[in-house]
Design brief:
mainly alpha; 2 domains; 0% strand
């Protein structure tokens, strides 16, 4: 008889706890739970059940501790996971909005509807930077060409000097 009473109390509190947790999680303004909210609620419920069971066991109320811990853990885990889902959604929305604004701005400029001084200044700076880069590349190229010519000249002088030195050696030895 005592076992049935304990089971009824446990079942009632467990069901009530899970119903309360579900109402809180689903009533928090979300139409659907995101992956982090679902995972957070599941991990929270499991962790809460374990911790609640330990605490409940110490006070002689293991079943109630499990129920309360699971409910509290599910609610807390769901809230934390939902915050993460909301953060991800906000970041994705901001990136999409920035991309859309940039594309819209390009279209306005292409159509000639919106060109202001900042746009002109930015374009001038980009053009000047590209021109400076081109000048630097041309200068480096000219320097490389000059060095290649000097190297060829040195190599020709070296070959000429070696050939002349060889002639002098042959003349000293009598052509041998």
């Amino acid at each position: 008889m005592k076992t049935k009473t304990i089971m009824k109390r446990f079942s009632g509190k467990l069901l009530g706890g899970f119903l309360l947790g579900s109402v809180i999680i689903t009533g928090s303004g979300c139409e659907t739970m995101g992956p982090n909210a679902s995972q957070g609620a599941a991990v929270g419920a499991l962790s809460g059940a374990v911790i609640g069971g330990i605490i409940g066991h110490q006070s002689g109320e293991t079943a109630e501790g499990v129920a309360v811990g699971a409910t509290a853990g599910a609610v807390y885990g769901g809230i934390v996971g939902n915050e993460k889902d909301q953060e991800i959604w906000r970041e994705e929305t901001e990136r999409e909005n920035a991309r859309w604004e940039q594309e819209n701005r390009k279209n306005e400029i292409i159509e000639g509807r919106s060109i202001d001084d900042a746009d002109l200044e930015a374009a001038r700076k980009r053009a000047e930077a590209a021109e400076a880069e081109l000048e630097e590349l041309k200068r480096e190229q000219q320097e490389a060409i000059r060095k290649a010519r000097v190297l060829e000249e040195y190599e020709a002088r070296e070959a000429e000097a070696r050939a002349e030195a060889e002639e002098v050696r042959r003349a000293e030895t009598g052509g041998y």
